[in-house]
């Protein structure tokens, strides 16, 4: 009789023990797959949510001068001797290798204008991109839709005593105040925001822009790579990563990954213990059978192969079924723990990982019991017949 037939017959005769071993491995593997899927889903979700807190890359013209402060950072690019950025540079950013990691590109044109005899910073923006970048904004009124409408910060409202619907003159051109930003303690409180194209016309800037704020997804790509690639596309610009924002994102993601890895290791160790205990008990129950095999000429290596083949068969089934069970459960569990978007698809690589982990756990935990079985003295085993 061939060795694999002996292994199959042995498993079939011991259905209860086989099912116990299968269920133990199945639960462990499916749990690990659930954790891996949930970790990946939550990492993407956390990265997306953290990106709502603003830009993590700032692009300004190369200059030795620092003439303005924006968002707590010194910003160059408004001096006359500096080659300004152009709107065409926005398209160049979209051509970098990791362009799929770029989520939001928000260009700005900064100028100082006199409103009611007081100097105010007027910023031309793409309102759609700006609102996507700064989701914490609370606007009283509405977002400007027309080119002659403005959005003002809380400090500007107080200092100039302005109100919704009121008109202000910027370089002699009237703008209607469409919305007022609630105070948020940032640079935005001191700004007057108007349409980017209208600002370029108003200040005779052509297609110039002063700076570009970029929100990049840095979960699966080092931010340094995005900065380097952007710098290659824009050799005349200074591309800077806002490290504090990035470190906060990556720390949150790393902590979640470490937790999942730790739990997975504990679960796999428990699964290995279950396999070891079950196989050891099986060997003790099969002393007579093993004694007969040894008496009729089976070598120690044959006994080891029989035990390990049993472990291999059970582990393979548990690995495949465990993956699909974990995949199904992940789809339902992810929304329950706060993931806004769930896109967990069948992954061939993950199936391979599931199968490999199951086989390694099953075979490793069965190795000692199989060696112990192979060393049984056939004469001692046969004495109980």
Q: Kindly state the percentage of residues in helix.
A: 40-55%
Category by helix and strand content: alpha+beta
Strand percentage? 15-25%
Number of domains: 2
Low-confidence stretches: 71-80
Number of helices: 12
Average pLDDT for all residues: 81
Radius of gyration: 33 Å
Overall geometry: rod-shaped
Secondary-structure element order, N to C: HHEEEEHEEHEEHEEEHEEHEHHHHH
Word description of this protein:
The chain is of the alpha+beta class. It has two domains: 3-48 and 251-382, no CATH class; 62-241, no CATH class. It has helices at residues 3-13, 15-50, 88-93, 127-133, 154-160, 196-202, 223-233, 243-285, 287-295, 300-336, 348-374, 378-382, and strands at 57-61, 68-70, 73-75, 85-86, 102-115, 118-125, 139-141, 149-152, 167-170, 173-181, 191-195, 208-209, 211-216, 237-241. The longest helix has 43 residues, at 243-285. It is rod-shaped and about 110 Å long.
Gist?
Helix content is 54%, strand content 19%.
Task: Label this structure with key terms.
385 residues; alpha+beta; 54% helix; 19% strand
């Amino acid at each position: 009789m061939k060795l694999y037939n002996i292994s199959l017959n042995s498993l079939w005769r011991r259905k209860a023990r086989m099912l116990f071993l299968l269920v133990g491995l199945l639960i462990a593997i499916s749990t690990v797959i659930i954790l891996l899927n949930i970790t990946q889903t939550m990492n993407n979700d956390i990265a997306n949510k953290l990106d709502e807190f603003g830009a993590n890359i700032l692009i300004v013209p190369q200059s030795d001068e620092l003439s303005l402060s924006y968002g707590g950072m010194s910003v160059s690019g408004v001096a006359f001797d500096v080659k300004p950025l152009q709107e065409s540079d926005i398209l160049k950013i979209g051509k970098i290798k990791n362009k799929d990691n770029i989520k939001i590109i928000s260009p700005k044109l900064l100028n100082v204008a006199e409103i009611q005899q007081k100097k105010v910073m007027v910023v031309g923006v793409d309102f759609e991109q700006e609102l996507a970048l700064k989701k914490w904004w609370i606007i009283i009124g509405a977002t400007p839709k027309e080119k002659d409408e403005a959005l003002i910060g809380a400090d500007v409202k107080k200092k100039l005593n302005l109100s919704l619907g009121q008109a202000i003159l910027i370089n002699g051109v009237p703008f209607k105040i469409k919305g007022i930003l609630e105070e948020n303690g940032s640079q935005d409180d001191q700004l007057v925001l108007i349409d980017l194209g209208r600002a370029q016309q108003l200040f005779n800037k052509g297609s110039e822009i002063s700076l570009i704020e970029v929100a990049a997804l840095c979960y699966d790509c080092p931010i340094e790579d995005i900065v380097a690639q952007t710098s290659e596309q824009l050799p005349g610009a200074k591309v800077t990563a806002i490290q504090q924002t990035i470190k906060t994102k990556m720390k949150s993601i790393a902590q979640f990954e470490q937790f999942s890895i730790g739990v997975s290791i504990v679960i796999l160790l428990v699964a290995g213990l279950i396999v070891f205990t079950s196989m050891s008990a099986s060997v003790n129950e099969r002393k007579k059978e093993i004694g007969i095999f040894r008496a009729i000429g089976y070598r120690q290596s044959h006994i080891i192969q029989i035990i390990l083949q049993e472990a291999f068969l059970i582990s393979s089934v548990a690995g495949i079924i465990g993956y699909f069970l974990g995949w199904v459960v992940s789809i339902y569990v992810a929304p329950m723990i706060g993931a806004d978007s769930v896109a967990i698809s069948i992954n061939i690589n993950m199936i391979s990982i599931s199968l490999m982990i199951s086989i390694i756990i099953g075979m490793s935990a069965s190795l000692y019991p199989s060696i112990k079985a192979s060393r049984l003295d056939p004469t001692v085993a046969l004495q109980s017949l």
